[in-house]
Amino acid sequence: MFSRALRPIATVAFQNGAKNFSTTPEMQFKVMVAGAAGGIGQPLSLLLKMDPLVSTLALYDLAPITPGVASDLSHMDTPAKVLGYKGPDELPSAIADSHVIVIPAGVPRKPGMTRDDLFNVNAGIVRDLTQCIAVHAPKAIICIITNPVNSMVPIASEVMKKNGVYDPNRILGVTTLDIVRSRCFVGEINGVDPRTVKIPVIGGHSGVTIIPVLSQCKPAPQIQEQNKIEVLTKRIQEAGTEVVKAKAGGGSATLSMGWSGAIFTHSVLRGLKGEENVVECAYVKSDLTDAKYFANPICFGKNGVAKNLGYGKLNAYEEKLLKIALPELKKNITKGEQFVK
Questions:
Q1: Does residue 336 have a pLDDT over 50?
Q2: Is the pTM of this model over 0.70?
Q3: 3-class SS string, 230-262
Q4: pLDDT of 99-142, one tens digit each?
Q5: Buried b / exposed e along 262-271 (16+ C-beta atoms within 10 A)
Q6: What is the CATH number of domain 4-174?
Q7: Is 258 annotated as a binding residue?
Q8: Which residues carry out catalysis?
C-alpha cells in the first residue's frame, strides 16, 4: 500500500549516478524549503537536490549563511538549480511559482521541552510564511514539518481561509518520521530490512496522538505479549524525546526528519507528476473522527490529496489509544485555530 518512495531517493541517486537523472519537461518542479539553513533544512535540502523530480530548489531562511548553503549545494553534480534567499524582503521571490513548499522552519526542541512549549514561537513563523504563500503561490502544496504539527496545520489552514484561497487538499502535515521510526524498530525486532516493513501510523504527530497500527503491520512484529506491544508503542510515541535526550542539549531529531521530509516530498511530487497509487501517511483536514484534522494513509495526486484512505480496522488496544489521543488532538487543533482568529 505504501509508496515506492520508500526506496530511498539517495540510494537511487548513488546507484544510478547523477548524470542519469531524467530531466524531461513533465518532471520539472520548483520546490521551496522555508528554514533551509537549519538543522532539518540543510539535510532535507541536500536530499532534495538529489531528487530527479526537482528542477529548481529555492532555499529560504533568516540565517546569514543561507546563500552559502545554496552555493554549497549548487556544486553537487545533479540537475536541480539551487537558489538562495535570505530575509523577509526576499521571501516573495523564494515562494513565487513554487509547486511544493516544505516548511521545517522554527526553533528545535531542547531537553525538558514538549512540542507544546514550541508553540508560541513556531506558530508565528508558520502564520507569516503561510500569509506570504497565500499571496504569491496560493496553489502550491504546503508540507508542514514545523512542530507542533498538530497545531501548525490548522494555523496554515486558517490563514489560507482568511485570504480566500483555502484548499484542504494542498495543506499537509508531515508525519513520515513516525512511520520511518516504526519501520526501523519493527525491522530491528524481526531482523529484516526496515524498508520492507509496511505500517500505518495514525492520529497526530506528538506523544499520545501518535498511534502505530501494529495490527496492520506487514510483516507482523515478532512479539506476541501485550506488554511488549505496549513498550514498542510507547517507544514510537516518545522516539523524539529519545533523540533529544541522547543529544544532551545539542538538538533534536534533525537528520532522520530531513530524511523523512525528503521521502514525503518525493511522494507529493510523484503525485503531481500524475503517478497513480502514491500513498503516504499525512496529517490533513479530515472527517474520519470528531477531530477536524487527522493523520492516516493518503493517496496523492495532481492537486495534493487525491483520496483519503482511512485507517481500516483497529484492534481493541488501538481503539483505546485512539480514545486517549482524540481529546489531546482536538485541544492542539483548537489552539492553532484560536492563534489565527
A1: yes
A2: yes
A3: HHHHHHHHCHHHHHHHHCCCCCCCCHHHHHHHH
A4: 999 999 998 766 666 666 779 889 999 999 999 999 999 999 99
A5: bbbbbbbbbb
A6: 3.40.50.720
A7: no
A8: 205
Residue 109 is which amino acid? R
Residue whose C-alpha cell is 506476541: 224
- CATH classification code of 176-256+277-336: 3.90.110.10
**C-alpha distance from residue 143 to each of 263, 267, 297, 340 (Å):** 12, 11, 15, 19
The grid coordinates of residue 240 equal: 523524539
CA separation for the pair 272, 301 (Å, rounded): 6
Q: How far apart are CA 134 and CA 117, in angstroms?
A: 27
Q: Is 257 annotated as a binding residue?
A: yes
Domain with CATH 3.90.110.10 in the chain: 176-256+277-336
CB 159 within 8 A of CB 134: yes
Residue (of 147, 32, 174) closest to 91 by Cα position: 32
Strand 54-61 to strand 29-34: parallel, antiparallel, or no bridges (unpaired)?
A: parallel
- Higher-pLDDT residue of 248, 83: 83
Residue with cell 512540542: 115
Compute CA distances 32 → 5, 111, 122, whole Å.
19, 30, 18
Query: For residue 326, which phi and psi values (nearest 5 degrees)?
Result: -60, -45
Q: Say if residue 189 carries a ligand binding annotation.
A: no
> Residue 58: helix, strand or coil by DSSP?
strand
CATH 3.40.50.720 maps onto the chain at 4-174
296: its cell numbers? 492516516
